[in-house]
């Protein structure tokens, strides 16, 4: 069942869904990020990239959804934040939460920014939505935009992760999108060797680590 990455589309890949179902799914994703280590994965990766950077951080969060990792009120580093998401409802949801960031509703494959516009590009639970060839293309474009590097926070495909999130979503989720997409996201996730194969084609130095719960923390330096 999990020997190869699934190519089945998730419900949230349907950008025609523009109602409160998106809001509920984003709220539940935020809870999972908080309780199962998603926030700490990205925070620790950012610390690696910023070891010699003392200024304000200009960060682009791609496929941001609710952008809960950087809008939880506990993040200490001063960040100038820009988000990109292709779902109009996700952008409206984020706008309802904050007016202090720049929100762009658009396609990650055609980002409307000049080269080296940001210090860091961040992609959490985003790249597993794409085929390997698309991921390579996306990462190359991200590296053109970044001065310091790219952070990837994504899922480890394993039978334990699959059944774990399946049980959690069955017991606690009220979102039909989350119940469908969370287990499917794991099936679309990566083994370490798969990620390394992708990253080796980028031609940049990178660090990859496994983090609880079943996350890959990847830092790619420019």
Structure explained in plain terms:
- This protein has 222 residues and is of the alpha/beta class.
- Helices cover 39% and strands 21% of the residues.
- The chain has 7 helices and 7 strands.
- It has helices at 20-35, 38-49, 88-97, 132-145, 159-172, 176-187, 192-200, and strands spanning 57-62, 79-85, 102-105, 118-124, 146-155, 206-211, 215-221.
- The protein has a 7-stranded mixed β-sheet with strand order 3-2-1-4-5-7-6, with helices on both faces.
- It is globular and about 45 Å long.
What is the overall silhouette?
Answer: globular
Structural class: alpha/beta
- Classify the helix fraction into a percent range: 25-40%
Strand order of the largest sheet: 3-2-1-4-5-7-6
User: What is the average of the pLDDT values?
Assistant: 95
Rg, rounded, reads 16 Å
List the total number of helices: 7
- How big a fraction of the residues is strand? 15-25%
């Amino acid at each position: 069942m999990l020997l190869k990455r699934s190519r089945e589309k998730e419900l949230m890949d349907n950008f025609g869904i523009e109602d409160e179902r998106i809001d509920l799914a984003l709220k539940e994703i935020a809870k999972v990020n908080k309780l199962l280590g998603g926030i700490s994965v990205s925070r620790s990766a950012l610390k690696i990239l910023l070891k010699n950077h003392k200024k304000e951080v200009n960060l682009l969060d791609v496929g941001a959804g609710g952008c809960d990792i950087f809008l939880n009120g506990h993040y200490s580093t001063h960040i100038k934040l820009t988000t990109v998401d292709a779902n109009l409802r996700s952008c409206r949801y984020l706008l309802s939460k904050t007016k202090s960031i720049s929100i762009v509703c658009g396609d990650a494959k055609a980002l409307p920014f000049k080269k080296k516009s940001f210090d860091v590009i961040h992609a959490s639970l985003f790249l597993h939505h794409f085929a390997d060839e698309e991921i390579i293309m996306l990462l190359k474009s991200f590296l053109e935009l970044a001065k310091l590097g790219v952070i990837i926070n994504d899922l480890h495909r394993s039978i334990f992760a699959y059944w774990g999130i399946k049980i959690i979503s069955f017991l606690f989720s009220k979102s039909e999108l989350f119940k469908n997409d969370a287990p499917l996201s794991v099936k679309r996730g990566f083994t370490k060797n798969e990620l390394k194969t992708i990253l080796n084609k980028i031609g940049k130095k990178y660090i990859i680590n496994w983090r609880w719960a079943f996350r890959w923390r990847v830092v790619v330096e420019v």
